[in-house]
Specification:
Chain B: Its main location: membrane. Chain B: InterPro entries: ABC_transporter_permease (IPR051393), MetI-like (IPR000515), MetI-like_sf (IPR035906). Chain B: It is a multi-pass membrane protein. The complex is a heterodimer of chains A (442) and B (346). Helices cover 48% and strands 10% of the residues of chain A. By secondary structure, chain A is α/β, with parallel strands linked by helices. In chain A, the strands form four sheets. In chain A, strands 3-12-5-4 form a four-stranded antiparallel β-sheet, sandwiched between helices. A four-stranded mixed β-sheet of chain A has the order 8-9-7-10. The longest helix of chain A is centred in the first third of the chain and has 32 residues, at 2-33. Chain A starts with a helix and ends with a helix. Helix content of chain B is 74%, strand content 2%. Chain B has helices at 2-29, 37-54, 60-90, 107-114, 116-148, 154-162, 169-187, 198-226, 230-238, 243-254, 256-271, 275-280, 300-309, 314-341, and strands spanning 286-289, 292-295. Chain B is extended. Classes of the chains: A alpha/beta (442), B mainly alpha (346). At the A-B interface, α1, α4, α12, α17 and α18 of A face α2, α3, β1 and β2 of B.
Chain lengths: 442, 346
């Protein structure tokens, strides 16, 4: 009998243990969903928020600490707790968010990266047009009806980043680099003076399809889609979405890309990683690198002493003096969240208050997308980019509207073949346009 | 009387348990967030289990057996069967990872076989699998012979050959990418990195995967070779069999079942190759095929991953995964049945 009792107990324990997983999950969901429901309400008579913590999923892991400290200060100020959860460093953010949604654990504020993500998440987004920050920026993400649904928190820009000291020694004015011929002359001049300037090549470009597809297929190709156009002009991206390209414009782009590749370090060009590409330039061995202001935080790692700035990747024969600048991603408020008003208040504070602006610009080292922002960036490329933005001399990132994964799965490979010399100019144009047509069609 | 009482009692327990669970689930589905849901659910299950356990029937023994298997069965159902069935279901829809709006029938399957990148990665995966199976098994068998011979320090060899298998594939991949890109090009002056040529890049993955996996397979061969009875070996020695004959006529037939295991493992492992592929090349370099650019080393697992994640086409990726499973099942079952015929029954 005793034995049997023991067996019953064991069986119960097994069953209980097999369920603990579920039970634990339930309670965890509760704490995540409505943190400290009773406790903060009781003592939080002075707090403005209604006590429920809001949770923000951030996609830029590098600003995690800065956001957390801003959230802590915000809690002190308003009593509203904000939990910052940062994803990044190779994490598939969309996949994680989809998991959260399926598990009923969706954050109140979540990150999304442009048109493709917008299509996935649009039925979960709150209309933010009424917020005061929405009218203070050109960079908010607007849906088809013109409603603002994405909160911009940083502007990034890219082109050809130059080593100003080398350009000065070679007698090239970076301001003059606004068309194909200017670049041709500059590249030739610098190439002929390579030895005295201590360079191994003129440019540092990486076009390997496996890891650098985003640089070629998205960033460089982005100039074809946007250069010279007004920010809301979608001519070429609309054509691309239908699987068409402008052969004449793409031809000029091919000419420029060929020149860019031919003046690049050949090893880095076809087998280099991002680190290789950046190191080559940062060590002063090339004059140009095709990256943008996101390399600012890496400059101290390479002990960069020279002055630098961003020039437009002006591939056209006509002058195009602007660089491509836009938000890399936006934050959106989950429309079934428990505490939408608190989310709106938090975003508003981040965008418009002095502390918020300081957190974004000074602490995170980013460029504020808000016209009312008075903080000035200090890192060299951010300063350079800011001058373009202040002058209104920027083009938008139309490439973010391309079909998802096109660079990784299709066009990146074409750029690699072009870089390896397997394709001539005409073949490149032909193959790129047929690749785009195929990708759009399928 | 006692039995009757027990039966009533246990039935009551079961009913109360069922009610508790049903109520807990009802609360869950109606979005109620009261914190006792989970406890109620667990308590209900415990009551049912206890009730079943003391229920006096002739089948008592088998009920107990099933009850003790329950945790494993549930785990198997939730982690293996459930995703598998759902996966097949999703492959027939336009699922985007969140929800689906309509059924597309076999539309995904048609799209899949029409896309060039999939057909190409299909073929390249087969090629890689065959080559990798041959290389890994030859290398592993040779190493196993070395480690079971009378060579000095064979235990040291055994440990060091096994070591690469303990390092994660992603780390290994990046380390080897560095070696191919930097070390080899520096060692052979003026050479291009192997990873820039489509055929050499495939060879590069083969080198790394053989290097990584041969040690593991070697261990299985070593175990097999050690299991060859000493008396047979001595008898053959007396009969004048030399090393080669003993190997070919005695050792290899005796360890035929080890070959089955090793072939099966390498086959499945190479077919599912993902981490090395992702870390070393991520599909690059590209090659021209019929006037189109294709990524030359994108194996099926990577292709599925990119379809779902990079293209955000979860349903199509799921479809590819279903087909991947079917092919893998067919190929490995065929291979096992062929090898089985060659085994010697002791």
């Amino acid at each position: 009998m005793k034995k049997r009792l023991l067996a019953v107990l064991l069986a119960c324990m097994l069953a209980a243990v097999s369920l603990t997983g579920c039970a634990g999950n339930n309670t965890k969901n509760n704490t995540n969903g409505n943190n400290n429901t009773p406790t903060t309400d009781d003592k939080g008579s002075t707090s403005k928020g209604n006590g429920k913590a809001i949770r923000l999923v951030n996609g830029k892991i590098e600003i995690d600490n800065q956001l957390k400290s801003f959230a802590a200060a915000y809690k002190e100020k308003t009593g509203q707790e904000v939990i910052i959860e940062s994803l990044g460093g190779g994490v598939d953010i969309n996949g994680t968010l989809k998991g959260y949604l399926a598990a009923g654990n969706m954050p109140d504020i979540f990150v999304f990266g442009g048109e493709g993500d917008y299509q996935t998440w649009k039925s979960y987004m709150t209309d933010l047009s009424g917020e005061s920050w929405a009218s203070q920026t050109d960079f908010g993400f607007k849906d088809a009806d013109g409603k603002t649904v994405g909160f911009p928190y940083a502007v990034e820009g890219y082109g050809i980043t130059y080593n100003a000291d080398v350009l000065k020694k070679a007698g090239v004015d970076p301001k003059s680099l606004v068309n194909y011929d200017a670049y041709k002359a500059a590249f030739e001049k610098i190439d002929s003076m390579k030895d005295e300037l201590g360079l191994t090549a003129v440019c540092s470009v990486a076009a390997e399809a496996g890891q650098m597809y985003w640089s070629t297929g998205n960033h460089i190709f982005g100039y074809y889609l946007s250069a010279g156009l007004k920010r809301d002009d979608t001519t070429y991206i609309d054509m691309l979405k239908e699987g068409k390209v402008d052969d004449q414009r793409l031809g000029q782009f091919a000419d420029f890309t060929k020149m860019l590749f031919s003046y690049s370090d050949p090893t880095v060009l076809i087998s280099g990683t991002y680190d290789d590409q950046l190191a080559l330039w940062a060590q002063g061995k090339t004059a140009f690198v095709t990256q943008g202001n996101w390399i600012d935080p890496s400059l101290p790692d390479y002990n960069v002493k020279f002055d630098c700035g961003i020039a437009p990747l002006a591939f056209l024969k006509e002058d195009t003096a602007g660089v491509l600048a836009d938000c890399p991603s936006w934050w959106s408020v989950y429309n079934e969240g428990k505490n939408i008003d608190a989310c709106k208040a938090f975003l508003n504070d981040l965008a418009t208050s002095a502390e918020g602006q300081k957190a974004l610009v000074k602490d995170c080292g980013m460029i504020s997308p808000y016209k009312t922002c008075t903080e000035v960036p200090e890192t060299p490329l951010a300063v350079s980019l800011k001058s373009y933005i202040d002058a209104g001399n920027t083009y938008s990132w139309q490439w973010t509207k391309m079909p998802e994964g096109i660079a990784q799965n299709a066009t990146g490979a074409v750029f690699e073949l072009y870089a390896k010399g397997d394709l001539g100019k005409d073949e490149f144009v032909k193959m790129l346009s047929s690749t785009i047509a195929d990708y759009v069609k399928k | 009387m006692n039995t009757q009482l027990k039966r009533t009692f246990s039935l009551i327990e079961i009913i109360v348990g069922l009610c508790a669970m049903a109520f807990a689930l009802y609360l869950d589905f109606t979005g109620n967030e009261s914190s006792y849901r989970g406890i109620l659910l667990a308590a209900g299950l415990v009551l049912i289990v206890a009730g079943l356990f003391i229920l006096p029937t002739k089948k008592h023994r088998s009920i107990v057996n099933v009850l003790f298997l329950l945790p494993v069965l549930l785990t198997f159902f939730f982690t293996v069967l459930n995703p598998f069935i759902l996966g097949i279901f999703y492959s027939l829809t336009d699922w985007n990872g969140i929800k689906f709006t309509k059924f597309v029938g076999i539309g995904n399957y048609i799209t899949m076989f029409q896309s060039r990148d999939y057909v190409y990665s299909f073929l390249i995966t087969f090629l890689y699998t065959i080559l990798n199976m041959i290389f890994v098994n030859i290398a592993a068998f040779a190493l196993a012979l070395l480690c079971t011979s009378k060579v000095r320090g064979r235990n040291f060899y055994r440990a060091s050959f096994f070591l690469p298998n303990l390092i994660g594939g992603i780390v290994l991949g990046y380390v080897w990418q560095f070696i191919f890109n930097k070390v080899f090009t520096a060692a052979i002056a003026g050479s291009q990195s192997m990873l820039t040529d489509p055929n050499l890049a495939l060879a590069a993955i083969l080198i790394v995967s053989t290097w990584q996996y041969a040690g593991y397979i070697m261990m299985i061969y070593v175990t097999g070779l050690q299991g060859v009875p000493k008396d047979i070996m001595e008898a053959s020695n007396v009969d004048g069999a030399n090393w080669w004959v003993a190997l070919k006529r005695i050792k290899m037939p005796m360890i035929a079942n080890t070959f089955t295991v090793c072939m099966f493992l390498t086959l499945v492992n190479s077919f599912k190759q993902f981490d090395l592929n992702l870390a070393i090349t991520n599909g690059a370099p590209s090659r021209i095929l019929q006037g189109k650019a294709v990524l030359s080393t994108e194996f099926m697992a990577l292709n599925i991953y990119k379809t779902a994640i990079a293209k955000n086409e979860y349903a199509l990726g799921q479809t590819k995964a279903v087909v991947f499973f079917i092919i893998l099942a067919i190929v490995s079952l065929t291979q096992v049945s062929i090898n089985k015929r060659k085994e010697v029954e002791m």
